[in-house]
Amino acid sequence: MSEDSEKEDYSDRTISDDDESDEDTLIKFLDEDIHHCALLTADALGDPFFPRTTQILLEYQLGRWVPRLRKPRDLYGVSSSGPLSPTRWPYHCEVIDEKVKHIDWTPLFPEPVYVPTGLEIEPAYSNTSEDTVVYLAEDAYKEPCFVYSRVGGNRTPLKQPADNCDNTLMFEARFESGNLQKVVKVAEYEYQLTVRPDLFTNKHTQWYYFQVTNTRADTAYRFTIVNFTKPASLYNRGMRPLFYSEKEAQLHRVGWRRIGEQIKYYKSQQGRDGRQLFSLTWTFQFPHSQDTCYFAHCYPYTYSNLQDYLSAIHSDPVRSKFCKIRVLCPTLARNMVYVLTITTPWKNADGRRRKAVILTARVHPGETNSSWMMKGFLDYLLGDSRDAQLLRDTFVFKVVPMLNPDGVIVGNYRCSLSGRDLNRNYTSVLKESFPSVWYTRNMIHRLMEKREVILYCDLHGHSRKENIFMYGCDGSYRSKTKSLYLQQRIFPLMLSKNCPDKFSFPACKFNVQKSKEGTGRVVMWKMGIRNSFTMEATFCGSTLGNKRGTHFNTRDLESIGYHFCDSLLDYCDPDRSKYYQCLKELEEMEKHMSLEKTVDDSDTSVIEIAVDLESSSRGSDSSESNDCQTYLVQLTSQVTNKKKHLKTKKERNAAIASHQNATKEVCGEDNEKQILGETSSDMTEDHCQIKVWQEQLKKPPIVF
After folding, report:
1. Is the pLDDT of residue 576 over 70?
2. pLDDT surpasses 60 at 202
3. 321 pLDDT exceeds 70?
4. Which residue of 49, 263, 283, 643 has the fewest CB atoms within a 10 Å radius of its CB?
């Protein structure tokens, strides 16, 4: 990319009616005879009244020079002759030449969470000169702040890991999204690991992703990461580390899987700055000797993975017609932030009345589960199903799949190369420091001037709570706007009904804390988007339905994207029966729910209090805490478990086919759906209390 191109305004230019009008305006401006022109580009005309540009080409036709626009130079951010722009690193980061790749694989059976035995030990280490340092990455501390970037990072010869013992494991993390700072061998088969804080910070130690070689099969190794900073962790609730074996992938087509025994997350020593640190320890036996293996906090999804995905879309003659890929802006390291516009190309003015839906992801680079949800959403929306076609016919989707590519590349957990959390800086005017969120906010502002935005959702991962849930926004004085106050909860409730074994409505919260006023969710809500959400996916698994007590895999995360689309159709169905059914259910919840606890803040609803109890740092299971939460979960379970979701698309498509204008407006599914024979009995043990609540409602649960 040239220096001049870096100074361009990368604001959004993705809506087709804008693109169609640009060329006509310019041609009209240049439609006069150009007598002084004898060159191919207007930049060299020498006429002071002629705009200096290299985008105008002059062709000699029928005795005169005719101006035309140059074909956009990789305007999509996807070269028609090769891959996307190369990955750029801070100049001092050491990077190995090997490109790490993993196969896609889904376990045949659900992977259960770890159940503590009570025999887990808490290793305590004191650094001594006798310990052997087998891996040390010091390159991250060569600069106090970001200076400049290079393709491929540090070009000097790399320092190789220690290799002085035939039975010593060798570690590596100097690859894309890798994170490991130091490894000390404290016993023959025991290793103490330290993860690297986010670059140019001294905190945010959560994400790890590293390679292990020189393995020995059927030998019990112990690994202990000693510098986590969060007091609460899903590892205390049964979460297991992820493991990948290249030999298993080659021999058996087995990919990432959950492993580990004697897993424990516990308080350890204090750090040098006086902060309390926490450790994670586990034991494991490698399946093969002399294997190349990987451990990770969550399923990796790198910037290169995204680029490969976008390249496949761009080269697809079908999907590229309704999915336009543009560069939203460059990052600090000059990596590209992409924005996708997905809609059926319109041929008349009706298309300009389409409402918009906005999705973003990966503002926090260590929350890789958000990228897998985004992938599932895009896979479904770009598919050939009738529901996907209906969504594209009805809406304009603006999608920013990776807001923080710099952080993703270097293996950060939360920050960009500015050393700051981008999701606290949507209100910032510092375009150069936080370009991706600045241009995203600007793009949405411009979009809202042209069409209504009915929903904004930012995808995240959560490190302390199970399930998938949403954070929404709620204004004050709700007693005067009760209808709006409840309407903001309708979409999450619909999503919980469409995905009862993964999405927890009781875990959703709808308030605006002062510390969150700079987040995308709050800023977009204050800009006027009524349905403005953050969707959080656990790093662990589910406590609901038939997924209870198991980890989420990539297919589970991707399925949320489909359910999101399904819920969007339900929400915008012209047959408003479902909408008003959910609204009435929320009113009943608000009316009949009561708590024994005295509420000091009269502006907090009973629903929010129940949610607060469930979403505390304890991460308590909503089916095992208090009765109000139990009722909320059970009510949702009774409604959603009666829906045979696999028939939803067929029923909706049958309804769509019966309407003449199905391609112009969203059409609903039949109100009646097939009901399963029985509801799940896993949600609660207090069946007597459930019956009491149902009698108070004096109505059967709503079949959705």
Report:
1. yes
2. yes
3. yes
4. 49
Q: What's the rounded Cα separation, in Å, for the pair 336 and 320?
A: 19
pLDDT tops 50 at residue 633: no
Q: Which of 172, 466, 536, 558 is catalytic?
A: 536
| Contact call for residues 528 and 371 (beta carbons, < 8 A) | no
Residues 6+ apart with CB under 8 A from 682: 544, 545, 546, 548, 623
DSSP type of residue 217: B
pLDDT tens for each residue of 455-465:
999 999 999 99
> What confidence tier does 9 reach under pLDDT thresholds 50, 70, 90?
very low
Quick one: tokens of 233?
């962790």
- H, E, C per residue of 262-318: EEEEEEEEECCCCCEEEEEEEEEEECCCCCCEEEECCCCCCHHHHHHHHHHHHHCCC
Cα three-residue angle 646-647-652, rounded to 5 degrees: 125
Q: Within a 13 Å sphere around the CA of 306, how many CA atoms are in the beta-carbon half?
A: 36
Residue 68 and residue 27 in contact, taking contact as beta carbons nearer than 8 Å: yes
Among candidate residues 454, 343, 451, the one with its CA nearest the CA of residue 389: 343
Which residues is 457 bridged to in the sheet?
A: 359, 533
- For residue 667, the model assigns a pLDDT of 39
Report the residue count for the chain. Answer: 704
The string of DSSP codes covering 320-388 is: HHHEEEEEEEE-TT-PEEEEEEE-PPPSSGGGGG-EEEEEEE-SSTT-THHHHHHHHHHHHHTSSSHHH
CB atoms under 10 Å from CB of 438, counted, come to 22
Q: Which of 100, 53, 10, 660 is nearest to 336 (CA)?
A: 10
Q: What is the pLDDT of residue 227?
A: 94
DSSP state of 502: T
Give the confidence band of 3 by pLDDT, cuts at 50, 70, 90. Answer: very low
Contact present, 413 and 206 (Cβ < 8 Å): yes
> Could you read off the pLDDT of 417-464 as tens digits, one per residue?
999 999 999 999 999 999 999 999 999 999 999 999 999 999 999 999
How far apart (Å, rounded) are the C-alpha atoms in residues 38 and 569?
57
Complete DSSP assignment for 512-527: --GGGTTSHHHHHHHH
Residue 122 is among the residues annotated as catalytic for this protein? no
Of 159, 135, 157, 140, the residue nearest 90 (C-alpha): 140
Residue located via tokens 């491929």: 152
Distances (CA, A) of 491 to 420, 510, 583: 31, 12, 10
Q: Is 0.90 topped by the overall pTM?
A: no
Beta strands, E only, 9-63? 56-61
Geometric angle at alpha carbon 337, from 332 and 340, rounded to 5°: 165
